[in-house]
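User: Continuing from earlier, I have the next pair ready.

Assistant: Great, send them over.

User: Here they are, in order.

Assistant: Folding the first of the pair now:
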Amino acid sequence: MSAAAANGVLGQFGITAPAGFVLVLARVSPLFVLAPLFSSRQVPPRVRTVVAVALAIGLTPLALRGHAIPHDALLIAGLALKELLVGLAFALSLGVLFAAINSAGALLDMLVGFSFGSLVDPLTGNQSAVLAQLYSLVAVAVFVAIDGDAWVVQGLARTFDFVPVTGAPDVTSLAQGVTAVFTTIFASALEVAAPVLLAVVITDVAFGVVSRVVPQLNVFAVGFPVKVVVGLLVVAASLPFAAGWISDQLSASVGQALQVVKVS
């Protein structure tokens, strides 16, 4: 079918509402691929698809208010690509915090010694990272407790004020904003893991001194269980403070994601 024929068919059936829905769905879809909780693998893909479509239907009247959708098929395809780019920037900015939390858990698994369990899990036979999963579950629980899902939906709705469906963002500024957010992953991971990290390092230093004083002591045989005990104790003591930090950062993550889109 030629472009002229396609434009004629679209114009015959009324392009505004269907095309507007497709554009909004293109911005909403990355949320269910990259954003925390919305992209959870525990939720079946069919359910995520239904929720994405329902959310797009609810946001379409808000997004199309005061905007005229062009009837040209090529222009609509270009707008859909732009909407997908804006949605990716918003979702990636939200997913950075959970990436930092997972990185903190993986770092602690390696330092404490639980990374051996990710190679061979004697219970399930699958790969697993104990502390990484623990911190991820705490982050999800905090996210649900503070109504983070509602904040994300409200933030997504506000992106249409910053970048309308018929507007074009500055791709350079958008990329710079996403890059700036990604540079905070390592620093945030260190903030979460700092108490346990310091405790494990001090334990290693202490066993290093002991090995010099008592050379016949098998430091590896004694040090491994002690590091596990120390790590678990410090994790239990610092987890409430980590949950508070996660709550504050989750509250700010939506604003950071909006700032990334707004800069554009």
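And the other member of the pair:
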Amino acid sequence: MAQQYDNRNDNIKVWINGELLHRNEAKVSVFDSVVQGGDAVWEGIRVYKGKIFKLNEHVNRLMESAHTMDFKNIPSPKEVVDAIKKTLIANDMFDEAHIRLTLTRGEKITSGMDPQLNTKGCTLIVLAEFKRPIYPNEGIKLITASIRRNGPSNLDSKIHHNNLINNILAKIEANYANADDAIMLDDRGFVSETNATNIFIIKAGKLSTPHATACLPGITRKTILEIAKKADIPHEERDISVSECFNADVVFTTGTMGELTNVYEIDGRMIKSAQNNDIFKQLKEQYKQLTEYEGVTIQ
């Protein structure tokens, strides 16, 4: 299990609709839409040295997801940012912190699927924890899941929603296979992403990542493509098969929670060497530099 409990989180305070509550008291109603049907959207955001990295990008995506889901009485971006900052300050969190930002459709007047039962507006939850990047330095082992990633005809992955059952089922497969995570394929059999992260390969000096057809076009993913462009590293978005991953020079994953993580094994096949690859090391170092000077100041 990659994530472990951090004792610094024993007495954290959680923001729920304007109140900062001790973690043991922080609760939502059983009538809240996130309980009734997983009807919510979310973002994962990281804090580095007094700054919130890619804050505006995450809040904008939250707003777009909520708009697509037709939420009513959505808090403004400023209200969300203020809530995040107040939560971090209340917890004295200025580094090595991760925020799970959740916006639900809100509380229903009675249980049921119909969004017209929601008359109280959205529920905003800011859960900030001390949390270092979760994956081990030596990298991770993946398996290919039998569960397919949703395409837009089923549930569009461009909505960063809380309906994560297919990802969780893929993660369960990985757990039983004694792997860290699982590669999820799209409905054509091409690599989409893992159950938790976007995925890249490097082959013969070229960086490739799957089209964001059946996966979330992650903010860390976008940042890596921007770094590659500025550094004149050949890069592309294209269909990638699992066998190409087996034979890549490097495979790595990207995400806010784990940053850049090399993959050393997929389905029992060893990947050549991510740790000693110059391109991977360059991308990782430049990403680290970005986190040190970019971001929105907490106070």
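Worth noting for the second one:
The chain has seven helices and 16 strands. The mean pLDDT is 95.
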